[in-house]
Design brief:
This protein has 364 residues and is of the alpha/beta class. The chain folds into two domains: 4-147, Rossmann fold; 156-359, Rossmann fold (3-Layer(aba) Sandwich), CATH 3.40.50.10300. The chain has helices at 8-11, 16-23, 34-39, 42-47, 59-67, 73-80, 93-97, 99-110, 136-148, 181-192, 220-230, 274-279, 299-310, 345-359, and strands spanning 52-57, 85-89, 114-115, 119-122, 128-132, 156-161, 166-167, 173-174, 196-201, 212-216, 235-238, 245-247, 268-270, 288-295, 314-319, 326-327, 329-333, 336-339, 343-344. An eight-stranded mixed beta sheet has the order 10-9-6-11-14-15-17-18, with helices on both faces. Strands 1-2-3 form a three-stranded parallel beta sheet, with helices on both faces. Strands 4-5 form a two-stranded antiparallel sheet. The structure holds cytidine-5'-triphosphate. The site of cytidine-5'-triphosphate has 15 residues, from helix 12 and strand 14.
């Protein structure tokens, strides 16, 4: 059964009656319709389905989705649903290429929203370029693959992301600049391919990815405990920037600065290495363990050594630049290494998840 919501802009192109003739169901248009609310209600409309498809997804509508605006029935339903979402963008090529649209596309992707198209070719205004809505058979194929559950269906994955905070006293801590963007994007992508994902995240300022169970932690020890509690998993991806050390003792009270008294000296102790622990987990070891190596010097050498030292299967070497939307990685496996171009972090996640799916004998 297909239920359609037609937006006010959509009604300028097609009438709800024409859409209703195609779906064989009544068409919903108005957030404030009392009849609709009595019959189904916009929250149930958002929940009572297997998949939500936005086609065509205009630049304006993608911006609304990215920002979580809910001013009409379609955007409200999208904000209220926890079902998988597929967007098929359609717009002028300049609007598609605009940094605002690309930022919205990336933030939707990071939340696990699937995207089909746009294609390249003639556009409505007599121009040509990327912006054409994907052809209907392509959209149908994407729908079928999402409904089938994806190539990682039945696989369990645990992903670490973000920084850790190691307290010094109730107000101070040792932290790092990790944004969590790469780890969150990987969790979203694995979930999109059907894996059952637990994302163990340090404190970050970005949204939870869709379709994942999120466990929030602060310290490395909490992260290790949450990762082990989430197992056994088939796949582990350690993308968190785990603090290597924590203060040996945490002051229960705020440390005071006393005039004339020397600055305190912090004694640090080593944190557990989550990646190494998972890699050496014996029968409980995930079949595929993936780590990241953030390096400022001798990146490729250090990353290869780190892979061997930690015992993980794959290591993704990257430059230790935190917070950027892009990443340039080198994938190091037992079979050798390959350099990926500079890519959006969501694209790195997409490639990595596709490689992971291939290990499990499936191609997305
Ligand atoms: N890692 C981990 N637990 C730690 C430290 C690191 O799980 N206590 C993981 C990270 O998530 C990453 C990989 O190990 O996947 C490498 O992290 P990185 O910070 O580059 O390496 P370190 O082991 O911390 O080594 P160094 O800081 O000396 O480069």
């Amino acid at each position: 059964m297909v239920r359609a919501i037609v937006t006010a802009a959509g009604e300028r192109f097609v009438t709800p009656l024409a859409v209703s003739a195609l779906t064989g169901e009544r068409v919903f248009t108005d957030l404030f319709s009392l009849t609709d609310e009595q019959e189904i209600g916009h929250i149930r409309l958002a929940q009572d389905c297997d998949l939500v498809v936005v086609a065509p997804a205009s630049a304006d509508f993608m911006a609304k989705m990215a920002l979580g605006l809910a001013g009409d029935l379609a955007s409200t339903a999208l904000l209220a649903t926890d079902r998988p979402i597929l967007v098929a963008p359609a717009m002028n090529h300049r609007m598609w290429a605009h940094p605002a649209t690309q930022a919205h596309r990336a933030s939707l992707a990071a939340r696990g929203v699937a995207c089909v198209g746009p294609g390249t070719g003639p556009l409505a205004e007599g121009e040509s370029g990327p912006g054409r809505m994907a052809e209907v058979p392509e959209i149908v194929e994407a729908v079928m693959s999402l409904l089938a559950g994806g190539p990682l269906r039945g696989r369990r994955a645990v992903v670490t992301s973000g920084p850790t905070f190691e307290p010094i006293d109730p107000v101070r801590m040792i932290a790092n600049r990790s944004s969590g963007r790469q780890g969150h994007a990987i969790a979203a992508e694995l979930a999109r391919l059907g894996a059952e994902v637990t994302l163990v995240s340090g404190p970050v300022a970005i949204a939870d990815p869709m379709g994942c169970r999120v466990v929030r932690v602060e310290t490395a020890c909490q992260m290790r405990d949450a990762v082990l509690a989430a197992g056994p998993a088939d796949i582990a991806v350690c993308a968190a920037a785990v603090g290597d050390w924590r203060p040996e003792t945490v002051s229960e009270r705020k440390m005071k600065k006393v005039p004339g008294v020397a600055a305190p000296v912090l004694t640090l102790t080593q944190n557990p290495d989550i990646l190494a622990t998972l890699s050496a987990a014996g029968p409980e070891r995930p079949r595929l363990v993936v780590g990241f190596a953030a390096e400022t010097d001798h990146r490729d050498d250090n990353a290869a050594k780190k892979r061997a030292a930690k015992g993980c299967d794959w290591m993704l070497a990257n430059d230790a630049v935190f917070g950027a939307p892009t990443n340039q990685v080198r994938l190091i496996t037992a079979d050798g290494a390959e350099d990926w171009p500079l890519l959006d972090k969501t694209e790195v996640a997409r490639r990595l998840a596709a490689r992971i799916a291939a290990v499990f004998g499936e191609t997305p």
